[in-house]
Amino acid sequence: RKEVEQDPGPFNVPEGATVAFNCTYSNSASQSFFWYRQDCRKEPKLLMSVYSSGNEDGRFTAQLNRASQYISLLIRDSKLSDSATYLCVVHGSYTNAGKSTFGDGTTLTVKP
Amino acid sequence: DGGITQSPKYLFRKEGQNVTLSCEQNLNHDAMYWYRQDPGQGLRLIYYSQIVNDFQKGDIAEGYSVSREKKESFPLTVTSAQKNPTAFYLCASSMEARGVYNSPLHFGNGTRLTVT
Lengths: 112, 116
Description:
The complex is a heterodimer of chains A (112) and B (116).
Chain A (H helix, E strand, L loop, with lengths): L3 E3 L4 E4 L4 E7 L6 E7 L6 E6 L4 E3 L2 E6 L4 E6 L8 E8 L8 E3 L3 E6 L1
Parallel strand pairs in A: 2-11
Antiparallel strand pairs in A: 1-3, 3-8, 4-5, 4-9, 6-7, 7-8, 9-10, 9-11
Chain B lengths: L3 E4 L2 E4 L5 E7 L5 E7 L5 E9 L2 E4 L6 E3 L9 E3 L8 E8 L11 E2 L3 E5 L1
């Protein structure tokens, strides 16, 4: 079993749609969680951190459920420019400090 | 502007040759990382370093070597022992300190290595 698993995708949605991505992680001692966005043939860029209380940044909402070891990303009112691969990242633990583990990513295509 | 610089952007080598990828950061970050990404795949950790003169193997360290002689620099050598070296290599850094785990990674633009 992979340490971080994401929805396989791809997701193809029309503009204006709401789409949700899920991610599960196996190490219960993991300390911090992030969503990154990666455009084709580019480096990943931080989209948002994920906090236990849930957090929102404009059209994007991230949730963390430590009991279920589950992270989610919700995108509302999808734009064409949201088309990218979204990577779930789990970082660090008391026994594995400094190590970030990436999911394989979920590809989103937003169509006109 | 602060950031991470990887060079070169594209690199071509013959099989059997060692090659060194450069990674420099001026963000004053403690931790640096090397990842490999193959087409359609996620990122896999090769090596990481939390402090100068110290580094740890990641999940796929075989065939690679690193050094961390300066805080700003974390070069990666792809040796001839690496069976499938052709990939997209990404260097990252974070403001990681002992006991603090919530610093996100900042990536360089990457180096595309092709070995024929």
